[in-house]
């Protein structure tokens, strides 16, 4: 498999999960501005959507959309229990968390990276994110991970998105449970290895 990634992008979650599962893969760095890979390939030929993550399977098929890739990988190595069994009620709960992260956190963060966005609009987004982070904090005060059953692909995704917030003007110190969550995940060998490889 080949993981097309950009350092610090949402592809980090997929990178972490590949390492957690100890699956064989190759990293291919993508320049988000030029849309070229480090080998000079046109990334738009690989993923016409133009963004990472993209996972090229050994048969040449390409999967896109992080939450889909995360679940696909978890199902490849079901014994690792990074996702509940497909079709189960717990899997629906996992999908609920993944959709919350992608729709309420990730999507709200994206415009904050834009220099063209007015400061007033950015503050409105930060305020909205603050409410979502308070909800997350309440959950993570009760348990170590998003799922009561333990660490899952949703935690890798949440770690990735929360990692952006200090650069976007949101100080996680307001939510000690989120700070503790980030520290807990940073101690996982797969997380440390993925961060080091992307540095």
Automatic annotation (TrEMBL):
Residues 1-81 form the GST N-terminal domain. It holds the Pfam family GST_C. InterPro entries: Glutathione-S-Trfase_C-like, Glutathione-S-Trfase_C_sf, Glutathione_S-Trfase, Glutathione_S-Trfase_N, GST_C, Thioredoxin-like_sf. Residues 87-199 form the GST C-terminal domain. SUPFAM superfamilies: GST C-terminal domain-like, Thioredoxin-like. It comes from the Bacteria. PANTHER family: GLUTATHIONE S-TRANSFERASE GSTA, GLUTATHIONE S-TRANSFERASE-RELATED. This is Glutathione S-transferase. It comes from Pokkaliibacter plantistimulans. The lineage of its organism: Bacteria, Pseudomonadati, Pseudomonadota, Gammaproteobacteria, Oceanospirillales.
């Amino acid at each position: 498999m080949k993981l097309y990634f950009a350092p610090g992008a949402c592809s980090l979650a997929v990178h972490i999960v590949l390492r957690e599962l100890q699956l064989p893969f190759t990293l291919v760095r993508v320049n988000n501005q030029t849309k070229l890979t480090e080998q000079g390939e046109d990334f738009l030929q690989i993923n016409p959507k133009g963004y990472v993550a993209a996972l090229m399977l050994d048969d040449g098929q390409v999967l896109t959309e992080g939450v889909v890739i995360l679940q696909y990988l978890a199902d490849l190595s079901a014994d690792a229990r990074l996702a509940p069994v497909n079709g189960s009620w717990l899997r629906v709960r996992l999908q609920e968390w993944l959709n919350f992260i992608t729709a309420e956190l990730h999507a709200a963060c994206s415009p904050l990276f834009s220099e063209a966005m007015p400061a007033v609009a950015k503050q409105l987004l930060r305020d909205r994110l603050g409410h979502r982070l308070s909800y997350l904090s309440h959950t993570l005060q009760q348990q170590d991970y998003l799922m009561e059953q333990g660490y899952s692909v949703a935690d890798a995704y949440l770690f990735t998105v929360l990692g952006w917030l200090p650069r976007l003007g949101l100080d996680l110190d307001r939510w000690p449970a989120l700070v503790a969550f980030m520290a807990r995940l940073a101690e996982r060998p797969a997380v440390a290895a993925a961060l080091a490889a992307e540095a």
